[in-house]
């Protein structure tokens, strides 16, 4: 990726340009110390003078009033705020009429910023004050006062906090009084510029120590650049938070959100005092010290999938390179390309007005449809359909271009969604809410309605990243998420009224990704790269989980690596310096998943034996995965073989005892018990009328109170419960202290022969019931 810059031969302004701002994706206003406000039209390449300001107004900063989100009629900004060196700010209409001038600060007003909703304006000045104003320019409050000038200010993503500079310090102050103020030393020199992105919640700062830095919203340093030759005079985030630009003397740099640099340009501009990104994020403009306005387009973005490499070579042209046969195709578009995504055999491209869907099998005949709203900010793909996100909503389309659904939830803000906070699979869409960060909304993809009972998934702490698995049955769809403590959890998406079981499967996890063809999850936790070959193990046999993992030392990936893709057996990881590392994973677990999904149990066992025969160290992992898969699919014969192979003798014995149970229902119940679902097992037995088995299950688990409760409720086997309880206490040499047991034990004689006979009778009865169905098992041993 790089910047393609353009400068006019002669500057249009006679003095330095102090600020620039876009109205639409193709129109820019610039202000200069020569008191002129110029309008640049990029479609016609014309530059016209809007207005000449009075000679005493020297502009410092400009910010357009935000467009109301999702409202079509106001597709471009109508007015802007201009701050000037005489201590005033001016509200100016698009035509250049000064609607209002307000005395704001002593000394110059160094920056002015509208919040995201356009309901408030913050200004900062040389007098060290931070002031909040209403839309019409009435003073609401003075947020802060300090002894040194405040050079830059930015709103927090929810418009409830303000970030401003104070010498070498950065300060985040919430608007509510008495809320905690966050302050930290950010640079070794004066901080000149700062910016806070609403999508990724990251903060940029630039200073006279010639460095630029990236911070998270808690003030933790994520990236610090090498010192440049000159102070950094401007930084700015692209709207979608994926890129940012840095300006200095004769220098313009394009960087990834993690800090590393894509491209460096050395234009003849003097210092670049201000950078503004266009609304679609494809280009930026810089206000230059020598009177120029520099324009730069982002070109040569790169997409890869399997054997295809796609590059945006010009604003409206893509080059497709098939690395297998070296074939090259050129894709031409009517308008400029804004976003693109390549996955699952399809390339989806959104331009300013249309969406193109290409199949990788045929590049000549794309499917084209018009876009409803404005600029697409995110494209997500699944195997069967894709999601477009713009300012107006979420839209799910099939690859044939048919609109499938448009999910909505209360208080939805689509302008701040990114690939970490939205996840799509063939049947499910998950969205992390910004208003309440502990909540994930889950929708049925095809209908756009909330899934299950309509309640969102709620976690105990704030969630940072979410990801849905891509394969398997809808009823078994899983979602993995990382919370702000960096713990990794997994849970089932479908739930029917019962409390959700959210299980923790990893700690200190930085980044994660699901495989595209099988439900294998990979992540980087602390110093290890980990692959969870069968994450569902946690719901089947939790003790087995450590045996189903593959771990590798992750020190080679450096600090803060990110997993980009997990396609087939290849995992792509981007290091903090921007370099890509490709890892290859063993193909066997994916083959095992494939066998299981088509119920080829014998083939699965054969595969595990083959892996064992090849004398790799992963045969134990494979057997452990197979054991968990077999139990999950209630195939106890395969489970027995797999558990035996990993030496879990106690579980093999238990599986054998399950096989000997007299009826299908009790075998089902004991299989549920095996996975630790005691409540479900008991419910199943009671529903099928096997009261004795339900009581016996509780006795075996030493749930004495529940066993007695069931016996009394169903007026059967009270003596059995008391007898086992007595035996248990005798074995441990204890006395009965439980009042309920003492009450029922009064005058009740325990006769083991009678109890054994009763149990035999129960089993005979159950066997008779089962005899009507063909599955009859051998006799059962009674516990004495």
UniProtKB/TrEMBL annotation:
What biological processes does GO assign it? Answer: cilium assembly
* Chief localization: cytoplasm
The lineage's top-level taxon is: Eukaryota
User: WD repeats: which residues?
Assistant: 102-134, 184-216
Residues covered by the IFT80/172/WDR35 TPR domain: 622-768
Q: Which SMART domains match?
A: WD40
One Pfam family, please name it.
Answer: TPR_IFT80_172
**What Gene Ontology terms describe where this protein resides (cellular component)?**
axoneme; centrosome; intraciliary transport particle B
Compartment(s) of residence: Cytoplasm, Cytoskeleton, Cilium axoneme; Cytoplasm, Cytoskeleton, Cilium basal body
The record places domain IFT80 second beta-propeller at: 300-588
Keywords tagged on the record: Cell projection, Cilium, Cytoplasm, Cytoskeleton, Repeat, WD repeat
Q: Read off the InterPro entries from this record.
A: Beta-prop_IFT80_2nd, TPR_IFT80_172_dom, WD40/YVTN_repeat-like_dom_sf, WD40_repeat_dom_sf, WD40_rpt
Quaternary organization: Component of the IFT complex B, at least composed of IFT20, IFT22, IFT25, IFT27, IFT46, IFT52, TRAF3IP1/IFT54, IFT57, IFT74, IFT80, IFT81, and IFT88. Interacts with IFT88. Interacts with IFT57 and IFT70B.
Reported function: Component of the intraflagellar transport (IFT) complex B, which is essential for the development and maintenance of motile and sensory cilia.
According to UniProt, the name of this protein is Intraflagellar transport protein 80 homolog
Q: State the organism named in the record.
A: Falco tinnunculus
């Amino acid at each position: 990726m790089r910047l393609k810059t353009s400068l006019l031969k002669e500057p249009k302004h006679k003095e330095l340009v102090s600020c620039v701002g876009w109205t639409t994706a193709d129109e820019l206003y610039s202000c200069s110390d020569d008191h002129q406000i110029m309008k640049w039209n990029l479609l016609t390449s014309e530059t016209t003078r809007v207005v000449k300001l009075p000679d005493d107004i020297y502009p410092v900063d400009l910010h357009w009033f935000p467009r109301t989100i999702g409202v079509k009629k106001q597709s471009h900004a109508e007015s802007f705020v201009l701050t000037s060196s005489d201590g005033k700010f001016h509200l100016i209409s698009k035509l250049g009429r000064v609607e209002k001038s307000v005395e704001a600060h002593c000394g110059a007003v160094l920056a002015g910023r509208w919040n995201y909703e356009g309901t408030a304006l913050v200004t900062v000045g040389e007098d060290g004050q931070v002031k909040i104003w209403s839309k019409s320019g009435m003073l609401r409050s003075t947020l802060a006062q300090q002894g040194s000038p405040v050079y830059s200010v930015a709103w927090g993503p929810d418009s409830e906090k303000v970030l401003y500079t104070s010498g070498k310090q950065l300060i985040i102050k919430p608007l509510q009084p008495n809320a905690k103020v966050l302050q930290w030393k950010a640079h070794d020199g004066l901080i000149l510029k700062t910016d806070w992105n609403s999508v990724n919640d990251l903060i940029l700062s630039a200073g006279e120590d010639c460095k630029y830095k990236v911070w998270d919203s808690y003030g933790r340093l994520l990236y610090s650049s090498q010192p440049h030759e000159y102070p950094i005079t401007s930084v700015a985030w692209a709207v979608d938070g994926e890129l940012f630009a840095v300006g200095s003397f004769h220098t313009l740099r394009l960087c990834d959100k993690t800090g590393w640099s894509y491209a460096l340009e050395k234009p003849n501009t003097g210092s670049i005092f201000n950078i503004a990104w266009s609304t679609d994020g494809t280009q930026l403009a810089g206000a230059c010290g020598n009177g120029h306005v520099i324009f730069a387009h982002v070109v040569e973005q790169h997409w890869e999938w399997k054997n295809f490499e796609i590059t945006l070579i010009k604003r409206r042209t893509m080059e497709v390179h098939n690395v297998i046969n070296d074939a090259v195709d050129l894709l031409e578009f009517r308008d400029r390309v804004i976003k693109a995504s390549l996955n699952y055999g399809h390339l989806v491209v959104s331009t300013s007005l249309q969406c193109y869907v290409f199949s990788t099998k045929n590049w000549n005949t794309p499917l084209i449809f018009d876009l409803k709203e404005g600029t697409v900010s995110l494209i997500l793909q699944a195997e069967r359909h894709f999601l477009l996100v713009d300012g107006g909503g979420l839209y799910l389309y099939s690859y044939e271009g048919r609109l499938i659904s448009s999910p909505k939830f209360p208080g939805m803000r689509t302008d701040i969604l990114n690939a970490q906070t939205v996840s799509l699979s063939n049947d499910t869409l998950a969205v992390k809410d910004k208003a309440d960060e502990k909540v994930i909304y889950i929708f049925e993809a095809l209908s756009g309605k909330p899934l299950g009972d309509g309640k969102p998934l709620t976690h105990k702490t704030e969630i940072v990243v979410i990801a849905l698995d891509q394969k398997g049955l809808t009823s078994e769809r899983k979602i993995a998420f990382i919370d702000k403590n960096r713990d990794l959890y997994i849970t089932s998406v479908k739930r029917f009224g019962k409390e959700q079981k959210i299980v923790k499967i990893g700690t200190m996890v930085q980044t994660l990704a699901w495989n595209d063809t099988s439900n294998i999850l990979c992540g980087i936790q602390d110093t290890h790269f980990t692959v969870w070959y069968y994450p569902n193990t946690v719901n089947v046999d939790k003790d087995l989980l450590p045996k189903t993992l593959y771990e590798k030392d992750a020190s080679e990936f450096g600090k803060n690596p990110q997993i980009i893709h997990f396609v087939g057996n290849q995992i792509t990881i981007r290091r903090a310096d921007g370099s890509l590392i490709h890892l290859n994973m063993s193909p066997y677990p994916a083959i095992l998943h494939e066998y299981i999904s088509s119920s080829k149990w014998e083939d699965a066992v054969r595969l595990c034996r083959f892996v064992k025969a090849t004398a790799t160290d992963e045969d134990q992992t494979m057997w452990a995965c197979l054991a968990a898969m077999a139990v999950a699919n209630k195939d106890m014969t395969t489970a027995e073989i797999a558990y035996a192979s990993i030496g879990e003798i106690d579980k093999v014995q238990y599986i054998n005892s399950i096989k000997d149970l007299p009826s299908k229902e009790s075998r089902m119940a004991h299989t549920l018990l095996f996975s630790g679902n005691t409540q479900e097992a008991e419910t199943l037995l009671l529903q099928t009328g096997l009261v004795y088995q339900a009581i016996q299950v509780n006795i075996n688990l030493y749930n004495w109170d529940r066993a007695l409760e069931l016996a009394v409720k169903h007026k059967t086997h009270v003596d059995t419960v008391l007898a086992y309880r007595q035996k248990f206490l005798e074995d441990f040499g204890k006395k009965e202290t439980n009042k309920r047991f003492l009450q029922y034990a009064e005058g009740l004689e325990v006769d083991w022969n009678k109890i054994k006979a009763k149990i035999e009778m129960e089993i005979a009865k159950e066997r008779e019931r089962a005899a009507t169905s063909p599955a009859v098992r051998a006799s059962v041993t009674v516990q004495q």
